[in-house]
Amino acid sequence: MEYGPSKFANKKKMRGKKMVEENKPDKATIIVHSGDMDKIYSALIVANGALSMGMEASLYFTFWGLQRLQKGGLEKGPLSKMHFLGLGKSMIKSRMKKANVASLEHLFKDFKELGGKVIACEMTMEIMGVSKEDLDQNLIDEYGAVGTYVNEARDSKITLFI
Amino acid sequence: MEYGPSKFANKKKMRGKKMVEENKPDKATIIVHSGDMDKIYSALIVANGALSMGMEASLYFTFWGLQRLQKGGLEKGPLSKMHFLGLGKSMIKSRMKKANVASLEHLFKDFKELGGKVIACEMTMEIMGVSKEDLDQNLIDEYGAVGTYVNEARDSKITLFI
Amino acid sequence: MEYGPSKFANKKKMRGKKMVEENKPDKATIIVHSGDMDKIYSALIVANGALSMGMEASLYFTFWGLQRLQKGGLEKGPLSKMHFLGLGKSMIKSRMKKANVASLEHLFKDFKELGGKVIACEMTMEIMGVSKEDLDQNLIDEYGAVGTYVNEARDSKITLFI
């Protein structure tokens, strides 16, 4: 399995890092398991908020979340519930525009400019039969397995599963 | 966007707080994104458990979760899955009563009495076209954006997204 | 309610533990609220990754998650979304096999051998009318309420709600 010790190339690096932990900025590490539009919004808004306040932020996209990293897939997620006060997805999008909520594309751009890191789950890629060519390379910083995630998360002040 | 630095009125206050961090009680900060009945139960039970054990607790209601803060909306959430061992929502409620599990209203009352804090997400209110008058003021302590959340969460021992 | 102070038998023990906190390994504590197959995978893979890297890990099974601890229930969870790139559950399972992803049974075995702890939620058992005899005793280390969870989580580096 992919959590086997042999795969943790970063293990040593992480241990070295721990010794200077006090001087590092706080970090938020979020697993994006869901591909639902509203949950991707929550993940990016929290991450961008953390970055804006001087924290680091990493998003680990896995399972349905990884689908949003496919070329052209970012805005394609469904709502996690059919109705939001009786509103469907297009109605929500138009209301978001009115409320000056940025598009996911824009939020992602902000995330990258603020220094956020996106990790794509290799195991999900293997299951889905998806190659790097199928994914939007502009969105992804790194490909990793659970060891990559644990390294990020164990040093984080905020850990979420979305 | 609402995570812009200009909106973080509490930034300074938070930094001041950090200097006395050692003397503060542990905290749990939970994003309540879901409006499903069973997930609202989980959020309140964890929060009340934390409060009972001397911790602080904050619940940040956003997206579908915010619907539960509308007047009369607390008990109106669906189950996150259609069947719980083949049981529907009314059956679950009657079984909960038999197992001496308190109603959401009662759990919320306990939460407030134990000193818990409820934050309502302003962005969701704007998207939904919902005003403060539409929300149950007895439930809400504060209105905030992601900066409010990050301030709470970065100092917390337990951070969850529900 | 089950979060009342009177039930926290471990309270003192926990406080004693805090004094030697520096020498303890990092910990990951995960609430498994969902019974969906893909989410059980995420929970176990994260937990096993943490254990493999020298951390402790606890899984607290509640609500739909607890159904997976029933005798023969482990592999019975549905997918959290109907389609995964158009694939149903059996297709996903066959693809996982091809990608050398272990079965849930195997992941659970690894989890136990690596020293992970499984806690079953007593409140859910009462609601469901399920007894210890209905649950797979090989999977469970402990029966507990929210106080048990909070004790684990407040000392953890990684806290997730899945």
Describe the 3D structure.
Three copies of one chain form a homotrimer. With about 160 residues, chain A is of the alpha/beta class. Helix content of chain A is about 40%, strand content about 15%. Chain A has seven helices and five strands. The first copy, chain A, has helices spanning about 10-20, 35-50, 65, 90-100, 105-115, 120-130, 145-155; strands at about 25-30, 55-60, 115-120, 140-145, 160. In chain A, strands 4-3-2-1-5 form a five-stranded parallel sheet, with helices on both faces. In chain A, strand 1, helix 2 and strand 2 form a beta-alpha-beta unit. In chain A, helix 2 (about 35-50) packs parallel to helix 5. Chain A is globular and about 45 Å long. The interface between A and B is medium-sized, with 35 and 33 residues.
Q: Tell me the strand order in the biggest sheet of chain A.
A: 4-3-2-1-5
Query: What is the oligomeric state here?
Result: homotrimer
Distance between the termini of chain A: 23 Å
Give the proportion of residues in helices of chain A.
25-40%
The helix/strand series of chain A, from N terminus to C terminus, equals HEHEHHHEHEHE
Q: List the chains of the largest interface with their residue counts.
A: A-B, 35 and 33 residues
Q: Which percent range describes the beta-strand content of chain A?
A: 5-15%
Counting DSSP E segments of at least 2 residues, the number of strands of chain A comes to 5
Q: List the uncertain runs of chain A.
A: 4-20
Shape, principal axes of CA atoms of chain A:
globular
Helix/strand-derived class of chain A? alpha/beta
For the biggest sheet of chain A, the summary is: 5 strands, parallel
pLDDT averaged over residues of chain A: 86
Please tally the helical runs of chain A, counting DSSP H or I stretches of 4 or more residues.
7
